[in-house]
Amino acid sequence: MRAKSLTERARRAQIVDAAIATLAELGYGATSFKQIAARARLSSTGLISYHFKGKQELVDEVYAEVRRRFTAFVLDRMDRSGTALGELEAFLRANLRFMAAHRADTVALLQVRPHVSAADNADDDHRKMADLLREGRSAGEFREFDADAMAIFVLALRNGVLARAADHAEVDLDLCERELITLVGLAVTRG
Predict the structure, then answer these.
(1) What DSSP character marks residue 113?
(2) What is the pLDDT of residue 1?
(3) Which of these, 18, 27, 99, 177, could form a disulfide with 39 (CB 3.0-4.6 Å)?
(4) What's the pTM?
(5) What does R_g of the chain's alpha carbons equal in angstroms?
(6) What is the helix (H) or strand (E) element at residue 97, kind and residue range?
(7) Vertex 147, ends 142 and 149: CA angle to 5°?
(8) What is the rounded distance in angstroms from the CA atom of residue 75 to the CA atom of residue 79?
């Protein structure tokens, strides 16, 4: 397989960005190549078909691109204090701040997630969260609890805030950030 030229990579990125914006505005069910082509200012949907074999390949690329952006954003904001609680708070804060700064990306991610053909990273997210919780428990920062169960709860709380904010732009993410961090802190520490 030949490497894509700079022009081809730029066109693919343009299409992915247009798909993200269209998904965020219209939702998965109403998004079509026609709407994406119009948003990208392409002369025809054939240009999308030239770069992507079909909607599934585009959906998979949207998911992968938003995950790359999300991961870079979160990793750049992780706490370096060396405490599990600091890492947990920084993770939750970064997640909600990504939503605030990149709403279209987050909404598009939530829209395509059920339709992605590759394995979702939810198991990896769960494993990393459970490992962080175990580290905090082992270090004596956190109370005794089942780390796998607590990881389910923490990620479900985070996902719930993101899903609600995706559907309701008026959700106060700063308030949700403070309350989520407080709630999770109370759940894991020795109150």
Answers:
(1) G
(2) 60
(3) 18
(4) 0.87
(5) 19
(6) helix 84-101
(7) 125
(8) 9
